[in-house]
């Protein structure tokens, strides 16, 4: 009965229009996990979904679902190259970065950024420079391109196919993309830049740091986007800006919400659909359930550093294991490495854990996480406080968001982490009730919204298909130059007018005063 | 069956929490029409609603509904004063304003603004300065104050009762309130000021006009709010800013949507719920239906200048009637004045018309309107193109929005309007299919949203009651001073540092050059 009501409710809310034909831009890893949930739902609602997949790739789990159509394309790099890149990124962020001086850090950072951009170029080449593939796509009568713009060029294909484009972003607050390409106002006084580990409440010193970071981002965007602009310009044979092309997207689906984001100005075509992959917990496998139940009143701790980390240095894994051995809770640890020597009897290692089902289990007391956005959202959904051990990319910042809301303790550096740090963190979030209360408050905010995030994401994708775009939500700022946006031309004009007026008035006053003085002088001389 | 599904769907979407106790701030006229719809829905959902009503008042139609509780308060002015004020406002805007020079216009404008503020003060006095009433309210165990802040001081009562506050705004784009008190970014390059009759697409000259208008609004806000600040400060006995108090509201329900508004940046606690009063058309009274059907294929034109205008100067009404007599459509005209001598056989005058039911009638071809937001929304809902004859307040601007979207022809000045202008306008929107197409496009945008506007308004009011506020949606900008918001202190600091560094480097260079020169001079002298 509940299912029937849910289905009828869905039809009542959305209506069932014609079914569409959706082209999906390639993505990878956790980006793909989220995207796949949306695609499954779109297929449930009768749409056809075609996914562009690099050939070969282990990153999009093409074997997992035969519900999508796949369109393969060739890339010059293979899955191992991507894997190696991610390893290098984690090594740099978690282990090497604090040994480098400012210049070394910047050089390495740009080196990695260029590598990532080269991968994007190889994806672009594989698709838009393949006449056969592009012909196939043109003949595919697609209604929309759906893209996680982690890899660029989906805007080129949308333009070539003359269909609307919807972005689905993994996480926002990157400043440059949302502000410069999306036209989202981002006052640096309360919008912290990504990677700064700042919150919306900044001291004077922190605001200095934020503004200087914005400046480095400006430099970064100039350097990185110059290459993209050249690529786009070469493809179209006319001057084309990558950022302007991005700005043409009809809807930006941001996969966060106000349970996570610091409140900020945003735009009508930007929709916050965070947590769309979250679902109620399903029953655990029998042996796992038995282990969980054996924890008694102490409950369990769920521990995962995500899919990117399958092995840790031996001393790190030993240190973690020894800390976990000292807590009364049972621990379920997702880890692909060698069994640590110090592993306690309360801890079990699994190659893979059903993370969402464990986080939704009534016995779960805490979640030790690297701070990936998907895991954080599962913890928010189930109201579980966190201990964060961030590794790279958006993870440190994600955890700062949770810490600022009192739902997490964060250990800044896995390399210098001591067993006591981890122990203190876990004990704090389990024994200090404020962490659980705050996690439950976030959970309430997450659930108490007018429309479920997955339904909202699907609604806007279907809206764009039904209405051939959503131009009525696109701010006019996209059509202004930077100086027009800030009205610098108007100010220059008004200041010029004012200066001329003041000058003329001054000259006239001077003339009249001189004239009067001259006359009175002449008079007195005559007299 | 459909009703059951709808009701079940509603419960599924919102859930039924505890029922709340809602205190409603007094308002008037068309503001009250919208607010009442929300209140009726809240009562349907089991909440108690108490409305503060000035004693006596004909503006809130207290006789119409016995579903609300009423709490009367005394005001020093009566309904006639209010009526006279509105008449004066219309006379000034529609008839007198173009005869005045800039200075005379400003003097009259401020005179009217002060009069309106005095009315608001008399409402404030009647409520917050009545110890008996305030005691009653304190004992009323209210969960929320709901207010159309057309009349101020609801924030004082919310603070006194220690309950959250939800605003429901009639229409936005007033610039000063939304930007200064709500912290909504409003770049003047594409956010036209209210009353400017500008759109989001502005030429260089129009942007100059807009910026100069923003400046006049700044002056206006300084003058008007100074009086409010004094009133608030006197009441609380501590320095209190009216604008800061407004900024404490948890949710701002704006009664427009992107079918009407130019797309613009907004904030998480600002919800666009425009058109919440719109409903499908009900059957017309029998004689009216017969008259409508007698129009045949030509259809009908619906004509109303709103409830504020019941009489027009005789020459104006005659001129309008003579123009309408020349169209093939039948006309239904809501008019309380004397029957014009030139009234055509195709035109019938009614003291009151069921406007929404007429606009939703399949025979309706056009709507002649003064541009009140409620009427415009009914036309959007039913996809009817408009001829606008704006009179005062937000009406000229409302119609500019419809004209910019190609769904209306606007006659700028009722005083100088000629029969041919009205005739041309009506013929254009009926015979040029683009107007109907654009009106239908707006209608599609209006209907095609993830949640109905009334449901969304009710959801957020209930959210605030359930969660004792919505502080997680309130931007940190509220807690910054103007110079912190714009980071002027940071820029001043950085420029100072930069200047000192440049100065020191310059001095050092000079010293070394001098030193070298001095040494080489000494050497050469020695030689």
Beta strands of chain A, count = 13
Radius of gyration of chain A: 28 Å
Biggest sheet features of chain A: 7 strands, parallel
Share of residues in helices of chain A = 40-55%
For the record, the count of structural domains of chain A works out to 3
Unreliable segments of 5+ consecutive residues of chain A: 1-16
The CATH topology assignment of the largest domain in chain A is Rossmann fold
Q: What is the average of the pLDDT values of chain A?
A: 87
Number of helices of chain A: 19
3D shape of chain A:
globular
- Give the name of the CATH superfamily of the largest domain in chain A: Glycogen Phosphorylase B
Can you tell me the CATH architecture of the largest domain in chain A?
Answer: 3-Layer(aba) Sandwich
What's the quaternary structure here?
homodimer
Query: Structural class of the helices, strands and pairings of chain A?
Result: alpha/beta
Strand order of the largest sheet of chain A: 3-2-1-4-5-6-7
CATH class of the largest domain in chain A: Alpha Beta
Identify the most extensive interface between protein chains. A-B, 58 and 58 residues
Would you write up a description of this structure?
- The structure is a homodimer of 527-residue chains.
- The first copy, chain A, has helices spanning 2-14, 29-44, 79-96, 102-128, 131-138, 154-161, 176-181, 204-236, 242-246, 286-293, 314-324, 355-359, 373-382, 395-404, 419-431, 433-447, 453-467, 482-485, 488-526; strands at 21-24, 48-55, 69-74, 144-147, 165-169, 251-254, 270-272, 300-304, 330-334, 347-350, 364-369, 386-388, 408-410.
- Chain A has 527 residues and is α/β, with parallel strands linked by helices.
- Chain A folds into three domains: 19-276 and 452-479, Rossmann fold; 286-447, Rossmann fold, CATH 3.40.50.2000; 484-519.
- In chain A, the strands form two sheets. Chain A has a seven-stranded parallel sheet, sandwiched between helices. In chain A, strands 10-9-8-11-12-13 form a six-stranded parallel sheet, sandwiched between helices.
- In chain A, helix 3 (79-96) runs antiparallel to helix 4 and helix 11 packs parallel to helix 15.
- The radius of gyration of chain A is 28 Å and the shape is globular.
- At the A-B interface, helix 1, helix 8, helix 17 and helix 19 of A face helix 1, helix 8, helix 17 and helix 19 of B.
- Chains A, B: It is a single-pass membrane protein.
- Chains A, B: GO terms for molecular function: glucuronosyltransferase activity.
- Chains A, B: It comes from Labeo rohita.
């Amino acid at each position: 009965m509940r299912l029937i009501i849910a289905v009828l409710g869905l039809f009542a809310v959305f209506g069932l229009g014609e079914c569409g034909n959706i082209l999906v831009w390639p993505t990878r890893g956790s980006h793909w996990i989220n995207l796949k949930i949306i695609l499954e739902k779109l297929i449930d609602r009768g749409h056809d979904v075609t996914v562009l997949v690099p050939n070969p790739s282990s990153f999009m789990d093409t074997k997992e679902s035969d519900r999508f159509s796949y369109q393969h394309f060739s890339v010059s790099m293979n899955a191992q190259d991507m894997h190696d890149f991610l390893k290098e990124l984690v090594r740099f962020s978690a282990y090497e970065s604090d040994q480098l001086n400012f210049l070394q850090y910047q050089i390495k950072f740009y080196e990695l950024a260029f590598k990532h951009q080269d991968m994007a170029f190889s994806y672009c080449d594989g698709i838009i420079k393949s006449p056969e593939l592009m012909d196939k796509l043109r003949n595919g009568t697609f209604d929309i391109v759906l893209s996680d713009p982690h890899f660029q060029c989906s805007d080129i294909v949308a333009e070539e196919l003359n269909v609307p484009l919807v972005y689905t972003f993994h996480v926002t607050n990157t400043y440059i993309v949302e502000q410069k390409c999306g036209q989202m106002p981002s006052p640096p006084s309360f919008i912290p830049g990504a990677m700064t580990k700042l919150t919306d409440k900044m001291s004077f010193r922190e605001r200095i740091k934020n503004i200087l970071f914005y400046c480095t981002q400006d430099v970064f965007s100039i350097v990185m986007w110059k290459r993209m602009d050249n690529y786009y310009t070469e493809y179209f044979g006319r001057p084309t800006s990558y950022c302007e092309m991005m700005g043409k997207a009809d809807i930006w689906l941001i996969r966060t919400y106000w349970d996570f984001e610091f409140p900020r100005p945003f735009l009508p075509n930007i929709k916050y659909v965070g947590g769309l992959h979250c679902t109620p917990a399903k029953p655990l496998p029998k042996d796992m359930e038995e282990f969980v139940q054996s924890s008694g009143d102490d409950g369990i701790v769920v521990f995962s550093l995500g899919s990117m980390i399958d092995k840790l240095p031996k001393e790190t894994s030993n240190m973690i294991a020894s800390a976990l051995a000292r807590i009364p809770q049972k621990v379920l640890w997702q880890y692909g490495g060698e069994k640590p020597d110090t592993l306690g009897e309360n801890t079990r290692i699994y190659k893979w854990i059903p993370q969402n089902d464990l986080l939704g289990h009534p016995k779960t007391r805490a979640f030790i996480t690297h701070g990936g956005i998907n895991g954080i959202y599962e913890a928010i959904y189930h109201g579980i406080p966190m201990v964060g051990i961030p590794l790279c990319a958006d993870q440190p910042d994600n955890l700062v968001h949770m810490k600022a809301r009192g739902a997490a303790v964060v250990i800044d550096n896995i390399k210098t982490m001591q067993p006591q740090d981890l122990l203190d963190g876990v004990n704090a979030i389990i024994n200090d009730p404020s962490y659980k209360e705050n996690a439950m408050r976030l959970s309430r905010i997450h659930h108490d919204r007018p429309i479920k995030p997955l339904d909202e994401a699907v609604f806007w994708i279907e809206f764009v298909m039904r209405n051939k775009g959503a131009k009525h939500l696109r701010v006019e700022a996209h059509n202004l130059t930077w100086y027009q946006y800030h009205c610098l031309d108007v100010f220059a004009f008004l200041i010029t007018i004012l200066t001329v007026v003041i000058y003329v008035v001054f000259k006239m006053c001077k003339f009249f005063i001189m004239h009067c003085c001259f006359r009175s002088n002449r008079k007195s001389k005559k007299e």
